[in-house]
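Protein in question reproduced for absentees:

***
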Amino acid sequence: MSKEERSLNFIEQIIEEDLKNGLSKDKLRFRFPPEPNGYLHVGHASAICLNFGLGVDYKAPVNLRFDDTNPSKEEQEYVDAIKRDVEWLGFKWDKECYASDYFQQLYDWAVELIKKDKAYVDSQTSEEMAIQKGTPTQPGTDSPFRNRSIEENLDLFTRMKNGEFEKGTHVLRAKISMNATNMLMRDPIIYRIMHAHHHRTENDWCIYPMYDWAHGESDYLEQISHSFCTLEFLPHRELYDWFLNQIYDASKVRPKQREFARRNLSHTIVSKRKLLQLVEENHVTGWDDPRMSTISGMRRRGYTPTAIRNFARTIGIAKRTNLIDVSLLEFCVREDLNKVAPRVMAVLDPVKLVITNYPEAQEEWLEAENNPEEAIMTYRKVPFSKELYIEREDFQEEAHKKFFRLTLGTEVRLKNAYIIKGESVIKDENGNIIEIHATYDVDSKSGSGTEASQRKVKGTIHWVSTKHALEAEVRVYDRLFTHENPDGNKEVDFKEYINPNSLKVITGYVEPSLQSAKELEHFQFQRLGYFCVDRDSSGEKLVFNKTVGLRDTWAKISEQ
């Protein structure tokens, strides 16, 4: 559906209004500005889809700009991961930019602010500055250093840049107003001293710009027309505009900051600081653990770019923050995988089935469809023999009337194969069934066209031939947190809600066609769910991750 055929969201309305008021369409330029201090998560995925989606809709360029102004927390690993995630989601940026590209220009502009008496070097401690800044209901008081001479400020700022001072001894502040209603306008810090190695500029700088100074000016330098960010930055808009006022040239595009609401996801954490905590404290195996809300974690679990883009489109853009049930994301994943994932047979809780009247040495290679959703149907061959594995839950020795799978004395169809009838069982010394004996109807082969093959039975079950089956490690994932909003109560440590049963590792058996399956390939294990090949998989050991079940059957764990 085109933009004109559906109602516009409020962000698109802003853009359309600007175009109507004279902004040339060829001046549209958007950006996605992550800080490289962690891996991107599902919230970032929505922001990526928003900004790059606008680029697609308006045929406008989109910059990928790294807000790399805090070298103490930033690493090249994160830069690489972010680029990988954006590309995997299916988007291409026009220019790869870094706030550090502009360090010299930002510094030069800061010098101009000092010369215009709009910035000064403050030598108070951070505690002293916090006190003199006042409260939302009480005005602040001027710093004792607010009226330093321009010459002294220029000298101190130059020496800060040259590395003559220790961290925390001085900062550069904008001279705005200590009585402003908006606390962010009370002489905000522009630069702080940091003696830290930067992943790009190395040790060239000893001072680094604050986010509010670097962000808007970077937008301006890149000629970004619309700078979209989440609602917590709404109070920052006034400062964004004040900083732009100091440098703006009317012949250029003036960036416009506008805000949208976060769409929080139930049963997840999206704070990069807390995600890092999960990694460092070994609650998960890494940033790409399939239980994590990171894009790399979702990719490893088997979520698809299409599913995530569809999810972002479904939840849309809003002005109010709300909590989206994670089952909606799982629905989008399930819906996409249903279209693209080949069907295969796997048994995850095996019990042996022996077809007593099937010839001992015989084996057949039966035809099985790969995906009924395909426009042009394709098929593969699966081996059949006297001894099979079936799911333990597909057999009951004594079954109730609504149990339509295998029981003694009743018939079921083996998927793509024959109709069988349960005859007897063998048990171990504890009474556990270790072997089921059945007979098959030799004329009932699926697709053979015989009268017996068209006979209706109440159930169909899947299987794998024991002689041909491949052993596989299967990682069954559940939600990482038992509470729908684990970060909602600031009085409770979010880690209290970690689900102790979020990962179950089992040994299963899969059909031999999966021997050559490659990392991240998706499959539907028939009647069980969607799975993908994990990066730990090899020719010697197959490893699959459960992506999502065939239907939403997740039961909430009661709060303790």
